[in-house]
Amino acid sequence: MTTVLIVDDSAVCQRVAGACVQAAGCDVRYAADGCEALESVNAEKPDIVLTDLQMPKMDGLELVERLRDFYPQLPVILMTGFGSEEVAARALRAGASSYVPKENLSKGLSEALRTVMSVVHAIQEREKVLAFLEESESRFVLGYEPGGIQALVGYLHEQLKLLNYFDESTLVQLTTALSESITNAIDHGNLELDSDLREEDDGSYQALADQRIHEPPYRDRRVTINATLTQSEVKFVISDEGPGFDPTSLPDPTDPENLLKASGRGIMLIRTFLDEVTFSEKGNEVTLIKRRDTPENGDDDPES
Fold first, then answer.
1. Whose CB among 50, 52, 167, 228 lies 3.0–4.6 Å from 235's, allowing a Cys bridge?
2. Buried b / exposed e across 158-196, counting CB within 10 Å, b at 16+?
3. What residue segments make up the domains of the chain, in order of their start?
4. According to CATH, what is the number of the domain 135-291?
């Protein structure tokens, strides 16, 4: 059953909203302000939060902002009253999913809940699939197909998104690192392009790339991407067919001066965004690992 946390400092409003929520077939929890709501969310993990905007200690707007930071997938429905229109607009921009005027609560809340619950149920179904997952492996082989990297990275992004594997910001970082890694395997591995050419900024880097994709031995080389997904992490092993390089020559990602160089940008992003980055001794294979964050392992505290 879908659980709705009602946040309101008025006992009367709690009872009215609670009756509407129960009529919609949902279970109900209550909190008197934003601080109590965060404690309840952390302890009971409701599916939806229904909150008033004007409350003591922590109002509805701040609650929406805190929930967006710590529980970005938790939908929030606002209960708006006369005089709270501006705050409601700010709360919607801050991440609230919907709103219902208090004067029309009995009818409007039912419609809002129905819409939001459809999203919640879809998320729950995807979470069930993830719970069933033991291990999933995929293997991809890329040449020099126009748009090939973007297509593959976009596909992997959508697969991880469907499973709610990471939040959106982490997914963007992960797929950015993956795209940079595949690009490096093609450019520096298979095409043997020198990173220093990028510092010239005269088009010579791209010109040489365009030339080599049609010349042996470069044209026949391929990049292989093995993707492994488990409950705890995603791992990509990217291999090229070039001569390799010395991995110890890579730029130090902790040195701020390296951020200003055109060359080495990709490896800086890769090492910053991922939990583990390891190269084979020959240098023509890199393993990328990103672990899933869990509440048990996290250090963030929404109440602090």
1. 228
2. eebeeeebbeeeebebbbbbbbbbbebbbbbbbbbbebe
3. 3-126, 135-291
4. 3.30.565.10
